[in-house]
Amino acid sequence: MVDVLAEVTGNLGAVAYGLAAIGPGIGVGIVFAAYIQATARQPESASLTRTYLFMGFALSEALALIGFVVPFIFS
Question: Whole-structure pTM over 0.85, yes or no?
């Protein structure tokens, strides 16, 4: 007999990660849009804003990885 509860729990983990990936995906888009806009307005400050670009990108991706790991911890 198929264990229905294990199947549902696995599917809920996938749904939870899908929902958790929405926020960082939007965040990465906002970070890159802000970098492009700042560089277009003041090209001489591109090296300074590039540092903030990588910091924002890394933070957003770290949140995505946390969202990927949490459903496995609580399952």
Answer: no
